[in-house]
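User: tokens in, sequence out, please.
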């Protein structure tokens, strides 16, 4: 039998809700399983909000149950410990991130009290308040449970996601502040993690060294577009701008409910922000900006294929290929190495496209025009113009094609010839 049954209402009717609650009460009295009516309205919130609320409701239910039955243990663990809230099996790189978080905490002497919802038993949730503090790696799931634990049980939580050198250092600093609040009374000493941060930055993470290398400096002036959930999109935007010196033309998220936090995080780091669940709008924005690389979800990866722009996947929704067998965390100091590789390898570097053309290995299919929407395009390329276009190195071909079509549209030219291409080039150079 299952330990817990969660009933999810599919209607907003208050009468039906009351009937369901009566059913839950009766089922609870007869069943050996715990039965909960999910307090979520799927007509008003998305699946991330629903998961966040359901996790909070489950935590609340079992802590209240333990309190009523007298099994709630409020004593803190002897040594500093933390709960990790929000790790799930289908989450993007969650298993890798969880392993890295464990390593990140264990070396400074922080033990793991519980990890939820992945890998924990319902009967053990009563021991959640024993941890010194809570960690919420991803805002999308776990934030409501952490807020509940702080309000009801006085447990502080860390919201900074340790993605990137700067955020990871800030994450460790926040841990030291929380631990030192209890240190004198519980472990009779203060902790200082400055040396740990320094050693990890120098010898585990190669991102700091790479950011000063000539390879990374070659990315200066490149433009990128970022889109994903709020946690990853904000973190990658910060890494691109602050740690790698790459311009972010547009940063966006589909987490509309977290728009205020996201705008605050990326303020001053990008030219524009876009908060939308419409992938077509995102596609049109990327086509208009025409960045050198995209960092987004599987949807942005498809957009990049259509526009001939490389894309690094940083967030759900994802494809099965984004669940690698090798160890590729995004969190912590090892995560900084993985992200640096992802960012660097996502750009078309140097003359690689031109060399592929020379050796006959380049895919010479045409790139798309300005918009990915279904608007009609009345501009045609002559055979000679298409031949001339194919002679242009691949890493600039898309931009030249787009600029030529914009020039033709502005001058009411329906057929692009070689002469039109040269005229567009002269106009752009003037």
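Assistant: Sequence out:
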């Amino acid at each position: 039998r299952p330990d817990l049954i969660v009933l999810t209402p599919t209607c907003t009717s208050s009468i039906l809700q009351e009937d369901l609650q009566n059913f839950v009460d009766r089922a609870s009295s007869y069943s050996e399983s715990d039965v909960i009516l999910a307090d979520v309205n799927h007509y008003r919130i998305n699946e991330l909000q629903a998961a966040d609320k359901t996790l909070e409701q489950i935590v609340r239910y079992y802590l209240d149950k333990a309190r009523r039955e007298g099994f709630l243990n409020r004593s803190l663990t002897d040594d500093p410990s933390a709960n990790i809230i929000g790790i799930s099996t289908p989450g993007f790189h969650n298993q890798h991130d969880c392993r890295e978080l464990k390593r990140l905490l264990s070396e400074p002497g922080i033990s793991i009290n519980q990890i939820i919802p992945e890998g924990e038993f319902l009967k053990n949730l009563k021991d959640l308040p024993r941890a010194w503090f809570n960690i919420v790696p991803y805002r999308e799931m776990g934030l409501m449970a952490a807020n509940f634990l702080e309000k009801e049980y006085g447990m502080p939580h860390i919201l900074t996601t340790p993605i990137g050198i700067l955020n990871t250092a800030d994450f460790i600093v926040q841990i030291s502040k929380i631990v030192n609040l209890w240190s004198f009374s519980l472990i009779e000493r203060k902790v200082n993690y400055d040396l740990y941060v320094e050693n990890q930055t120098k010898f585990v993470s190669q991102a700091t060294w790479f950011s000063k290398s000539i390879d990374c400096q070659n990315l200066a002036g490149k433009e990128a577009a970022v889109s994903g959930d709020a946690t990853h999109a904000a973190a990658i935007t910060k890494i691109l701008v602050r740690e790698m010196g790459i311009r972010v033309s547009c940063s966006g998220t589909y987490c509309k409910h977290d728009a205020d936090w996201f705008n605050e995080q990326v303020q001053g780091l990008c030219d524009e922000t876009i908060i939308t669940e419409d992938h077509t709008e995102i596609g049109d924005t990327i086509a208009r900006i025409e960045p050198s690389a995209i960092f987004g979800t599987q949807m942005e990866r498809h957009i990049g294929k259509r526009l001939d722009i490389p894309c690094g996947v940083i967030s759900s929704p994802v494809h099965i290929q984004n669940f690698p067998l090798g160890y590729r965390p995004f969190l912590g100091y090892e995560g900084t190495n993985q992200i640096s590789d992802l960012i660097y390898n996502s750009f078309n570097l140097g003359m690689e496209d031109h060399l592929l053309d020379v050796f006959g290995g380049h895919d010479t299919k045409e790139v798309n025009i300005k918009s990915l929407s279904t608007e009609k395009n009345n501009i045609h390329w002559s055979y000679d113009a298409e031949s001339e276009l194919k002679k242009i190195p691949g890493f600039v071909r898309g931009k030249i094609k787009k600029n030529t079509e914009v020039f033709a549209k502005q001058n009411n030219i329906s057929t692009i010839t070689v002469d039109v291409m040269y005229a567009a080039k002269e106009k752009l150079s003037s």
